Amino acid sequence: MPELPEVETIRAGLASRLANVTVTGVEVLHPRPVRSHPCGPDGFAAAVTGRTIATARRRGKYLWLAFADGDALLVQLRMSGQFRWDDPSVPLQRHTRVVFDTDTGHQLRYIDQRMLGGLSVSVGGADLPSEAAHVALDPFDPSYDPRSVAAIIRARQAPVKSLILDQRIVSGIGNIYADEALWRARVYYATPGRDLGPRVVDVLDAAREVMGEALVRGGTSFDSLYVNVNGQSGYFARDLDAYGRQDMACRRCATPIVREPFGGRSSFRCPVCQPRP
DNA sequence: CTGTGGTCCTGTATGC
DNA sequence: TGCATACAGGACCACA
């Protein structure tokens, strides 16, 4: 569910609370989110108990808690994963899957309605888990080079939206910000990468711009499925120009926004600003 | 290698 | 009131 601005909001919240915090106990309430651990839920709990967290890091939508010993707890929130930082007296909310007790007295709680996401221990992964090494840099990485990303996109014939959603090409962009970037750049989502010409740069610039604005607002939230570690929603939904605005007036030309199926999900566009070629 | 579609899950909204 | 269907901020995998 969360895209880069939401994951970054969560990462910052975790980093500010978890530095030098030790995990004193782990309770796995549902086995699925720890399915990738070879020794099952008990093995996962044993592997994490006693670890001291140094910080929280991120690449694209991949998030991990870097342990002081060089290993890491890798987190993929996917569609519905979230973290909460709560006092143990606060009742567990529905869909709580894993509870971490810490030496601060507070609990870190992993909640995931759909359980498409998961937690895993990455040996030696404190700096960059090998499981996330295939993920490209995101637009806010100091080493991000939009020109090389543009070159990759212009060499492909797949639809531009598929390409900017491909986390191996550029990371952090999901369905919301893809539609927002394409709206800002006035590009039709199914335009082949190789037909974009100089507009590739517009799309990439727009993606970074819109995600940066969303980050300042604490991310995009429509409901309780995205909240920060305090349980609060982000405020960017009101600023969206395309996503979720079916039949509402385009903020540039007043034409009703249309929703169309694409790649098994929904795409929103302005039929005048982003015409099909 | 490239592009596409199915799949993993649960919950909610909508229509018959 | 049921029941079926579609859809949801993601990403992996098999297949042509």
Folded structure, characterized:
- The chain has 277 residues and is of the alpha+beta class.
- It has helices at 4-18, 40-48, 146-154, 160-165, 175-185, 199-216; strands spanning 21-28, 52-59, 62-67, 72-76, 81-86, 96-102, 107-112, 118-122, 258-262, 265-269.
- The strands form two sheets. It has an eight-stranded antiparallel sheet.
- Helix 3 (146-154) packs across helix 6 (199-216) and helix 5 (175-185) packs across helix 6 (199-216).
- The radius of gyration is 20 Å and the shape is globular.
- It binds a DNA duplex (16 and 16 nucleotides) through residues 1-3, 6, 32, 61, 76-80, 95, 112-117, 156-159, 162, 165, 167, 174-177, 219-222, 225-226, 243, 263-266.
List keywords for this structure.
DNA-binding; two-stranded antiparallel sheet; 277 residues; alpha+beta; single chain; 6 helices
